[in-house]
Amino acid sequence: GTFDPSLHEAIASVPWAGNPEGTILAEARKGYLLHGRLLRPAQVTVSAAPPGDGTGEDSTGSGRGPVRE
């Protein structure tokens, strides 16, 4: 499904190329509705844009390489 902030609480986001951004990947805690009223939002993990999506962040390096002194 797709993340809906009125029904879900995002507790984590994971870079994921296989699904569109905002796709629910896992449900950590079930949410509840009663007569159309939200009692508790579902806690979910959602997909995020994968690194290197054109924002330019990778052009300066990831900072994970070897440290040279």
What does this structure look like?
The chain has a domain of 44 residues: Head domain of nucleotide exchange factor GrpE (Nucleotide Exchange Factor Grpe, Chain A, domain 2, Roll), CATH 2.30.22.10. Helix content is 0%, strand content 41%. The chain has a 3-stranded mixed β-sheet, with no helix packed on it. About 12% of the residues have low confidence.
What distinguishing features does this structure have?
single chain, 69 residues, mainly beta, Nucleotide Exchange Factor Grpe, Chain A, domain 2, three-stranded mixed beta sheet, two-stranded antiparallel sheet, 5 strands, 41% strand
Note the overall shape: elongated
Q: Nearest-angstrom radius of gyration?
A: 17 Å
Helix percent reads under 10%
Helix count, DSSP H or I runs of 4 or more residues: 0
Determine the N-to-C terminus distance. Answer: 48 Å
Number of strands: 5
Quick check: average pLDDT? 84
The percentage of residues in β strands lies in: 35-45%
What is the level-2 CATH architecture name of the domain at 8-51?
Roll
Please report the first level of CATH classification, the CATH class of the domain at 8-51.
Mainly Beta
Catalogue the unreliable spans: 56-63
**Class of secondary structure makeup:** mainly beta
The CATH H-level superfamily of the domain at 8-51 is Head domain of nucleotide exchange factor GrpE
Largest sheet: number of strands, sense, barrel closure:
3 strands, mixed
Q: Within the largest sheet, what's the order of strands?
A: 1-5-2
H/E series: EEEEE
Query: What is the fold named in CATH at topology level of the domain at 8-51?
Result: Nucleotide Exchange Factor Grpe, Chain A, domain 2
